[in-house]
Structure formats: structure tokens, C-alpha cells
């Protein structure tokens, strides 16, 4: 993988550089809590919105509120990769870690593609082939978790492809955006010791 720390989408490298990595078809731009705070509160708004793929004012205000309230506490953080199609430069989604407990060396992995045109092409599998080892090697994780709706067949398929093991059902675990009804999640985990085998 090629690592670059050049200017990204017009975001000045005056702030801690935003590392960039490449796979065969993707560019992955690493965004940690400190980068998110800079992008939401200090970077030029249009460029920051483009970088974070924020499409409307409501999403932008939500991002700014998160940054103001603190994206990182003394023991938790996040590390996301914004995903771009290498051929066109188009943003296609994100993949990475949230609920990253530094002391306990565990984090929850998440991923999304923003449009149907990018689905069923193996792009998320390509991203995860980079992101999962990054979590163990660079973030020093010993455990990755994935919480997935029992109805999300595509996500269940991809997480099992990477040997995450089902550990249980979390009842009424989360409330989807725009809903008032909590839903169940299936809890999967991948341990570093199993990944290294």
C-alpha cells in the first residue's frame, strides 16, 4: 500500500496531515477524531463538506455539533477511512472504527457505501482487506466487534467472509435514524489471535 500525506481535496496540510492509502481500485483517506474536529470546525466549509461527503446543511450541523461536544474522550476515539474510487476520484463510502476503547484495545468496525452503483462490486471487501489488518497492526487492537441488524444480509455476508464469529444477540440494541423503535443487533467479533492464524 502506498501512503501519501499530500494535500487532500484542498484541505491544507497545515493541520496534522491526513494520511492517504491506496488499494487496487480505492483511495482510503484516514480520518481520526482530531481530523474530524478540524474538518468540522476549522477547515473551509465547502472543502470539508466535500471531503466528508456531507450533502445537506442538517448533516453538516450534526457533524459540527459532534465536533464541539467532543469526538474523543480520554479513553475512546475513532478512526475512519473515507473511500474514493481511484479511477474517477468520486467518494463512494466509508469504513473504519468507532467506539474505539484505547485502554481495552477493542473497537467496533463499521462500513457503508453511499450509492447503489458501488455495491456488489467487491469494493467493501477490498477496503476491509486493508482496514482490518490496519486495526490490529496500527491501532494495536486485540478485538474488533461488528453489530449488525439480523435483516442486513449483505453486511452479515461480508463480516462472515472475514471470519468474524457470532457471539450473541443484543436485544433492542439501537434505534435507527428516523425511527422511534429500537432494533436488535447480532454481535460478531474477530480477535487478533484468530486473525493471525
Overall description:
Helices cover 29% and strands 32% of the residues. By secondary structure, the protein is α+β, with helices and mostly antiparallel strands. Mean pLDDT is 83; it is low at 1-16. It is globular, with a radius of gyration of 17 Å. The protein folds into 2 domains: 1-141, Aminopeptidase (3-Layer(aba) Sandwich), CATH 3.40.630; 142-197, no CATH class. It has an 8-stranded mixed beta sheet with strand order 1-2-3-4-5-6-8-7. Strand 4 (91-101) and strand 5 form a beta hairpin. Helix 1 (33-41) crosses helix 3 (57-69). The protein has 6 helices and 8 strands.
Which tags fit this structure?
197 residues; alpha+beta; 2 domains; 32% strand; eight-stranded mixed beta sheet; Aminopeptidase
Report the CATH topology name of the largest domain: Aminopeptidase
Average pLDDT figure: 83
Order of helices and strands: EEHHHEEEHEHEEH
Beginning-to-end CA distance, first to last residue = 22 Å
Oligomer: single chain
Query: Helicity level, as a percent range?
Result: 25-40%
Q: Main beta sheet: strand number and arrangement?
A: 8 strands, mixed
Amino acid at each position: 500500500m502506498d501512503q501519501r500525506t499530500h494535500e487532500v481535496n484542498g484541505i491544507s496540510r497545515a493541520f496534522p496531515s491526513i494520511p492517504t492509502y491506496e488499494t487496487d481500485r480505492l483511495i482510503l483517506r484516514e480520518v481520526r477524531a482530531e481530523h474530524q474536529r478540524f474538518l468540522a470546525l476549522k477547515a473551509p466549509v465547502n472543502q470539508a463538506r466535500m471531503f466528508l461527503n456531507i450533502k445537506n446543511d442538517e448533516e453538516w450541523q450534526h457533524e459540527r455539533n459532534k465536533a464541539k461536544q467532543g469526538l474523543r474522550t480520554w479513553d475512546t476515539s475513532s478512526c475512519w477511512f473515507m473511500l474514493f474510487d481511484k479511477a474517477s476520484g468520486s467518494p463512494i463510502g466509508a469504513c473504519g472504527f468507532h467506539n474505539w476503547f484505547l485502554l481495552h484495545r477493542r473497537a467496533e468496525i463499521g462500513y457503508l457505501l453511499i450509492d447503489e452503483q458501488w455495491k456488489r462490486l467487491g469494493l467493501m471487501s477490498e477496503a476491509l482487506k486493508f482496514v482490518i489488518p490496519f486495526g490490529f497492526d496500527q491501532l494495536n487492537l486485540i478485538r474488533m466487534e461488528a453489530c449488525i441488524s439480523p435483516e442486513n444480509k449483505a453486511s452479515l455476508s461480508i463480516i462472515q467472509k472475514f471470519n468474524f464469529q457470532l457471539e450473541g444477540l443484543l436485544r433492542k440494541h439501537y434505534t435507527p435514524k428516523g425511527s422511534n423503535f429500537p432494533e436488535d443487533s447480532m454481535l460478531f467479533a474477530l480477535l487478533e489471535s484468530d486473525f493471525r492464524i
